[in-house]
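Dear colleagues,

As part of the handover before I leave the project, I'm documenting each prediction I ran so the next person doesn't have to rerun anything. This entry is a single chain, and its sequence is reproduced below.
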Amino acid sequence: MSVSAEPRPVPEPGDPDLPGSPGGSGPAAGTQPPRPLVVTGGIAACAAAGSGLAVLVTLTAIGWITAPHVGIGTGLGGVLRTATLLWLVAHHVGFTVRGAGRISMLPLGLVLLPGALLVMAGRWVVRVGSVTQLRHVGYAAVALAFPYALLAGALAVASRTAVAVPSLLQAVVASFLLALVAGGLGAARGLAPWARLAHLMPARPRSIILGMLGAVAIMGLVGSVLAAVSLAAHLPEVRAASDALGPGLGGAALLLLAQLSYVPNAIIWAVAYTLGPGFAFGAGTVVAPTGTVLGAVPVFPMLAALPSGAHPGGPAWLPVLVLAMPYVAGVFAGVVTVRIAPTPMIEAAPLWGFAAGTAAGVLAGLAAAFSGGSLGDGRLAAVGPSGFQVGLVAILEIGVTAALTAAAANWLILRRATRRTSKSSPTPAPAPDAGSGSDPGLGSGPWPGLAKTGVLTGVVDERDDADGHRIYLNPWATAEGEDEANGEGEDDGEGEAAWSAQEPPASPDDP
């Protein structure tokens, strides 16, 4: 599927044969074919990895200068190894610390840095590699992801120290998946805007995806508000934890950046709290709307905002309101799904609504699994929500609600369409025989032209075995053809189509 013009040759910047250059031989001279995707992807991967490392090296050097006691290392080598380890952490790569154990509770906010760089790299690969077809975006994404994963594996080996050892397998796999997804999104966006790319999809998959995104957006908004309210309610405790650390001016700036990088984790934990299962912060602990059981937590300002007490504070209706938010997201998902692509098959509407809600639940479970982890081999070996519990509860709450809402909304849409068509269409005269020049696609009843198809305008017919390639004749084509014949039309092509539509079908007895 082509979404842009034909590939253009890439001019070499200094070529004397370029048009307008001294000695140029014409517009076609001085150009060369575009680089292969393998070469372009390798260059883009190196540029994305190098840019991310440069940013983290700068931040690590600032921390080493302002707070040398934090254990970054000695000399420039220690700064570079620490920055490389942070770069791997930004790709959600865990590591093992000698004497402490496995550290996999990582900030998801850092993923935004390599993700944004890979999106820009994917767009550059499409532009420089002259990729013009949407089906070639996958090749561009693989050409970027493969060398990027090799670079991540090399950096994982180079950053090993006697204190911290990153996981080589996780570095390769996580970097490849991140580059494949982010680079693929950037490559697709480099071909066309998101609205145009969405309309290239069939109506049914587009409705499910947009319904899922709507439910996820509502849950993310609710989680953000809940986390912000909890932080504001525990602001004195947060300030006390910050003062206890005494980081100084430079250390305070770095501490703020560290807390901002954990904001996505906090939002996902708030979503798990809203769904009901909640999350844990250590063995034998739970933070849920029904109550909280916590032990000792590390001295980190954001952790002071965790709710405490056997019973949730505030008014009695607040936990009920919090637990009702997933059902609101399910209602929104069901409405969006059938509004984009209603179906005449009443029994199919709940299935599509449930598919959108299930996709939202699976995404919530994956986010919950990545937002937690371990902080060593001791009591904090289990931190964060359970991905399985969150995903299962989200599917039951959002999916079932979306299915019921989709069924009701689809029934209302079809009922309104039937009433509107019945009121706007007068009772037609009896249809003449097909042999006298009548249109075989037309029929009597409240929907002229739709009696044999049974499909309303804008409704996706699930029973269409022609994969959507079915032709319906226009019952008003005769009037349009007369207007075109009298010279009232503006487009000759439209008049031609209208006159051809009004011609009666050939009789079987005609020679």
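The chain has a mean pLDDT of 79. The longest helix spans residues 387-424.

All the best with the project,
I.
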